[in-house]
Amino acid sequence: MGIERSLADRKGRDFCELPRETITSSKSRKNRRRQKKVMPPVQKLFKTCKDVFASGGTGFVPPDQDIDNLRSVLDGIKPEDVGLKPDMPYFRTSSSQRKPKITYLHIYECEKFSMGIFCLPPSGVIPLHNHPGMTVFSKLLFGTMHIKSYDWVVDLPPESPTIIKPSESQDPEMRLAKIKVDADFTAPCNPSILYPEDGGNMHCFTAVTACAVLDVLGPPYSDVEGRHCTYYHNYPFSNFSDGLAIPEEEKNGYEWLQEREQLEDLEVDGKMYNGPKIVER
């Protein structure tokens, strides 16, 4: 007992004998540590996007290291990081609605990139559409979603027709596309990435359960700059397969896409994003 008291007394004297500037410096360091805050995940995502797409534009694909960095940050985002819960009204269906209504929560947009969240109730559908000249990162925050995506076919022999104009009709032409993904995804799962020319640039989302998907678009849609969102109908490959040299066992991996104008099956309601705010600096 006496040894412990003696040791404590000696330590007390040693501390008192320290130079005042040493004590002050130690307190300052502790205060700085207390003041240092952890960056909110959505703020970190904003900062990463700002860096990754700083020199972006139509057709821009970030370097591999930047893609990996942004994918990693996006992968760490959870529903609570953006103020979402599965029991929110966005994720409920109403008997009065012919089609489930989709809600879009706008987080941020500039000429280089945009960030937003699509909230889908069960059976909600975002129809097949494209992302011209864009690199898109998507993170399923919760729920189960069916994703079907396509890329245009560009590697068939020149004599193989990949574009068909309907005869005696004013309908838009049909173009051959290869199915990239056709599967259910359940959160937590890896973020998906599509590129201007591949990776499933055209896709359709169908909510198997209530779900939310966080999208980062670089750059965002812009009619002025030629990045118009186009929607499509899809048709079986067998409808127009004459003259195409595709092995029988691979034919189910192709479909014909045709631009559409009427979107009677889509209702998107824009709502205010109420999660942690983005601080631009």
List its traits.
281 residues, six-stranded mixed beta sheet, seven-stranded antiparallel beta sheet, single chain, globular
Description:
With 281 residues, the protein is α+β, with helices and mostly antiparallel strands. It is 20% helix and 31% strand. The protein contains four helices and 13 strands. The strands form two sheets. Strands 3, 5, 6, 7, 9, 11 and 12 form a seven-stranded antiparallel sheet that branches. Strands 8-4-10-2-1-13 form a six-stranded mixed sheet, with helices on one face. Helix 3 (41-52) runs antiparallel to helix 4 (64-75). The longest helix has 16 residues, at 20-35. The chain starts with a helix and ends in a 9-residue tail after the last strand. 26% of the residues are buried.
Instruction: Give the topology string: H per helix, E per strand.
Output: HHHHEEEEEEEEEEEEE
How far the N terminus sits from the C terminus, by CA atoms, comes to 57 Å
Largest sheet descriptor: 7 strands, antiparallel
Uncertain residue segments? 1-24
What is the count of β-strands? 13
Helix count from the secondary structure assignment: 4
Shape: globular
Fraction of residues in helices?
10-25%
What is the topology?
Layout: H1 2-16, H2 20-35, H3 41-52, H4 64-75, E1 102-109, E2 114-120, E3 125-129, E4 135-142, E5 144-152, E6 163-164, E7 174-186, E8 192-194, E9 202-207, E10 211-218, E11 231-236, E12 254-260, E13 268-272
Parallel strand pairs: 1-13
Antiparallel strand pairs: 1-2, 2-10, 3-9, 4-8, 4-10, 5-7, 5-9, 6-7, 7-12, 11-12
Helix pairs in contact: 3-4
